[in-house]
Amino acid sequence: MDDAKTAAVWNNNLQAFVEGLGFGIPVNISSDPRHTTTANAEFNAGAGGDISKWPEPLGLAATFDSKEVSKFGDIASKEYRALGIATALSLQVDIATDHRWMRFTGTLGEDPFLARDLAEAYCN
Length: 124
Fold this sequence. Notes:
Helices cover about 40% and strands about 5% of the residues. It is built from 4 helices and 2 strands; from the N terminus they run H-E-H-H-E-H. Helix 3 crosses helix 4 (about 110-124).
């Protein structure tokens, strides 16, 4: 999909089709993170670069600011819903303990208390 409008129309049409089947089971569109700073990143391509750009979760953790992470969660939620996405497959709430782990930057860092607080702010 080339832009956010096309993605939203496609997802809404898919939902309308499934609702017409009569089983009462909705479609749940999910997505890996799309808010990275690279406009042509794999998971942002479906939004055509039309969504806001934010640091990786580890960068959000570096702010030590629950209010900023809450702001990100609110904006991401609105943007995903506008695209027809109901489930965000992020942030990773695992505690980062080994810097060699390829998903380290997808976490909120190694401090379990900070990660707890920031994850709660994001989810709320």
